[in-house]
Structures are given as structure tokens and as C-alpha cells.
Fold:
Amino acid sequence: VLGRSMVVGKPVSMLLLGENATVTICHSKTKDLPKVCANADVLVAGVGRARMVKADYVKEGAVVIDVGINAKPEGGGICGDVDTDDVVGKASMVTPVPAGVGSVTTSILAKHVIKACKQQNNK
Structure:
């Protein structure tokens, strides 16, 4: 997991640990960051830096899940933490940004809003 935020990095790490995955958490102070990331079979990127993850961060055939959402540095839209054009030839799969994990986030948010509404109305 690339990122240690309370929004993405830590919760994703805990979910993966709950499924008995062996998890490595990386962040901006991790030494040899690309090398450490390149050991992962699954790389979850949530660092908040546009297109930071390049091909050297990715193991051949790895699955890359881009949770990042950033303004494009050149303007005119959004992009993820993964430089998809650079990574796509190396990874077996890369989630896109936009139109990737955002729909999952929206679904979970809707579920929590409904649950909160029911709790407030004792139903």
C-alpha cells in the first residue's frame, strides 16, 4: 500500500490484513520507494501526487489499484497517482482514473448515509 493516510492507506491496509494478506505500507520517507513497491503483487496507490507511480514502481504482471484523485498538472481534468501510460505495459491490470474505484466509493457512501438515516429515525 503506497500511502499512510487515514482516508486510504491505513484503512486499506487493515482490510487487507483482515483477509490475511501480507501488507507493506510505504510512504514518502520509505527508502528506495520504487524498489520496495516493485516487490508487490498488488500495489494500491493513494498518495495524492499526480502520476507519481511510474513503471519502475511496478512488478511485471502486478495488479495496480489507483485510488488517487488529483488535478492534472497541465490543467483540464483529473488524473490518478499512477502514470497509467507508463505502467500499462508492465502491469497485468491498472484501474483507471477517472472511472475506476470512484463508483465503489460512491456506493459505500450511499450505504452509510442510508444506515445513518435509519439509525437517526430508530428504524
Summary: The first helix runs from residue 9 to 18. The chain has one domain: 9-97. The CA atoms of residues 54 and 88 lie 10 Å apart.
